[in-house]
Amino acid sequence: MVSSSHEAMHRIFQEHPDLFSRVSEVLGVDFGPPTSVTVLPTDLTEARPLERRVDTLLRLETEDDEPLLLAVEAQGKKDPDKPASWAYYASYLLTKYRLQPILLVVCQDRATAEWAARPVHFGPRQWPLLTLRPLVAGPHNMPVITDPAEARKDLALATLSAITHGRDPDIGAILKAVTTALQDAPDAVKNPIIEFISQGLGKLPAAALWRKLVAVDLSFYKSPLFEEVRDEGRAQRAAEDVLAVLAERGIDVSEDARERISGCGDPEILRRWLRRAVTAPAAEDIFVVD
Q: How many Cβ atoms sit within 10 Å of the Cβ of residue 224?
């Protein structure tokens, strides 16, 4: 199953395709900003029943160079089968579009990034047929942006930086810089950035911090994430009410029942349990299905 962080690491280039020129500059390779961008189909399936799909595929037009194809792959862990797939993508794209392809791999941990960045030679040791050399963006080379002014200058790069540094000890300062920079940004800019970072952090501990910062620093902003945070707050308060009523009545609550009540995120179910908690002879009775 594709994770939310996987989606965010490559889809940000669909939303901000010119981000590639800044990322390539950080990586020490000069690709000018595109003058136009076309989002291409990502399905690389052959005629035979074998499906191959690149994460994001863009055609980039530049002022000076011929158009090129940018394939962006989000990689969450080492996979010995991936280099062969990436080599296939490159040859397929070159054959289909007759344009030079380049592969950018985006990672969230240093070990995976260093693995992905190693040149891979295909063919006999004496005479390699081809060499795969993807560009790799990850925590080892993406800038750590903790200054709101710097984040404001390039919100897309700051977003990718926050995603790739999700495990960084400075992630709190990185996320705070982004929310501070977003306070002056229009809603159309805030929306995708808030959601990209939320998806990109996935289940990392930093995700909870991001949600709190969005709720506090951007409380006026009604994004889907904000609504989710608000609903979670309501559910937490409702769960506390259920436990408080049971405690006031002197009803013993087992550890399993307490975890079930505290872990419920549905306010409607919690309201039903609250009504039952007023008269239920035992804590477990509030869970009985009518």
A: 11
**SS3 labels along 131-152:** EECCEEECCCCCCCCCCHHHHH
Judged by DSSP in three states, 5 sits in: helix
Given the DSSP bridges, would you call strands 120-122 and 100-107 parallel, antiparallel or unpaired?
unpaired
Q: Using CA atoms, how far apart are residues 286 and 284, in angstroms rounded to an integer?
A: 5
**pTM higher than 0.70 for the full model?**
no
CB atoms within 10 A of CB 119: 10
Q: How far apart are CA 48 and CA 44, in angstroms?
A: 11
Q: Which residues 6+ apart lie within 8 Å of 223 measured at CB?
A: 190, 191, 194, 195, 214
Q: How many CB atoms lie within 10 A of CB 177?
A: 23
Q: Look over the chain and give the mean of its residue pLDDT values, rounded to a whole number.
A: 85
- Distances from the Cα of 74 to the Cαs of 104, 113, 200, in angstroms? 9, 10, 11
Interatomic CA distance for residues 273 and 57, integer angstroms: 49
